[in-house]
Design goal:
The protein is of the alpha/beta class. The protein has three domains: 91 residues, Udp-n-acetylmuramoylalanyl-d-glutamate--2,6- Diaminopimelate Ligase, Chain: A, domain 1; 206 residues, UDP N-Acetylglucosamine Acyltransferase, domain 1 (3 Solenoid), CATH 2.160.10; 31 residues. The longest helix is centred in the last third of the chain and has 20 residues.
């Protein structure tokens, strides 16, 4: 559900420099090409300039780094800001405020014995909260979700529909866990014994620190012993798998379909693009970057960018790629040399 503001009010809210009519009403946000009257859009990159001349948006948020623009329609107000992406986030927060949490517990919800609920907790239909669980103030548990025995959820954390937290999982404050996520799952641990795979009991726990967001259908294993830990402020996309006893630092970005094998340690501020695979028992240093579809089989030092399969440091990969491009010409040259030598031998 959206609300409305005037262009002038939005400019004041963002601390933006306004060029145009401050009285226009803004109800929604839209892309430049789709926007119409009553909508605000944004422009952060020059590649989208062709859409600006034809936009029907009432207002456009524009980054100052783009410089003077000639293509702006006369009817469109411009809000000049230092960072268009950050300003868009603020605008969406203003126009689309979160719904008020009513603190209601659905009649079909099931609460085990000794459950502790803070003020304003909301629990949806058919959700289950296991015995001994602790839910902090204003926690929201969606429909059909399961909060296992002895789980702990911090203040203002939101568990969306169809989430499962296995017993003893700890989730910090102001976290968001999206639908289908499975947190604290048994790790994939077996020992081959007498012609069969014997399961190793997984008795550790999973700890999610404050302000972590976990995407839909992501699975995070509990520790086999000890714990799996996700650091504060880390954001994890959909369809990620994090194995037992992995430790991920603060402020990391982990994109869709990443797989991290057991007992790997990831430092603070690390970014992993889509489909990265990391084998177990490695160390990824603070601030490292791993490009999409890379297969990591060695430790990555802090601050380095790695990519490829197998993944290597960026400069090594670039040199190898440059050499590979020269290979066809080199083969032709060698062929000519061989032909000349064969001709000389026959003479």
């Amino acid at each position: 559900m959206s609300t409305s503001v005037t262009v002038g009010q939005l400019a004041e809210y963002l601390g933006a420099e306004l060029a145009g009519d401050p009285a226009g009403e803004l109800f929604r946000a839209a892309s430049l090409e789709a926007a119409s009257e009553g909508e605000v859009s944004f422009l952060a990159r020059r590649k989208y300039l062709p859409y600006l001349a034809a936009t029907r948006a009432t207002a456009v948020i524009v980054g100052r780094d783009l410089g003077k623009l000639e293509e702006i329609p006369r009817s469109t107000a411009v809000l000049w800001v230092d960072d268009a992406h950050a300003a868009l986030a603020e605008t969406l927060t203003l126009l689309y405020p979160e719904g008020h949490r009513k603190g209601e517990i659905a009649a079909t919800a099931v609460l085990g014995p000794d459950v502790q609920l803070g003020d304003g907790v909301s629990i949806g239909h058919h959700a289950v909260v296991g015995s001994g669980a602790k839910l902090g103030d204003r926690v929201c548990v969606g429909a059909n979700s399961v909060i296992g025995e002895r789980c702990e959820l911090g203040t203002d954390t939101e568990i969306r529909d169809l989430v499962c937290l296995y017993p003893d999982t700890v989730v910090g404050a102001r976290c968001i866990i999206h639908s289908g996520a499975q947190i604290g799952v048994d790790g994939f641990g077996y020992v081959f014994e007498k012609d069969r795979h014997r399961k190793i009991p997984q008795v550790g726990r999973c700890v999610i620190e404050d302000e972590v967001e976990i995407g839909a259908n992501t699975c995070i294993d509990r520790g086999s012993v000890g714990e799996t830990r996700i650091g504060a402020g880390t954001k994890i996309d959909n369809l990620v798998h994090i194995a037992h006893n992995v430790s991920i630092g603060r402020g990391c970005i982990i994109v869709a379909q990443v797989g991290i094998a057991g007992s790997t340690t990831v430092g603070d501020g690390v970014a992993m693009a889509g489909q990265v695979g990391i084998i177990g028992h490695l160390n990824v240093g603070d601030g490292a970057r791993v490009a999409a579809q890379s297969g990591v089989s060695h430790d990555i030092p802090a601050g380095e960018t790695w990519f490829g399969y197998p993944a290597r440091e960026r400069s090594q990969v670039m040199r190898a790629s440059a050499a590979l491009l020269k290979l066809p010409d080199l083969i032709r040259r060698v062929g000519r040399i061989e032909k000349r030598l064969n001709t000389e031998d026959q003479a």
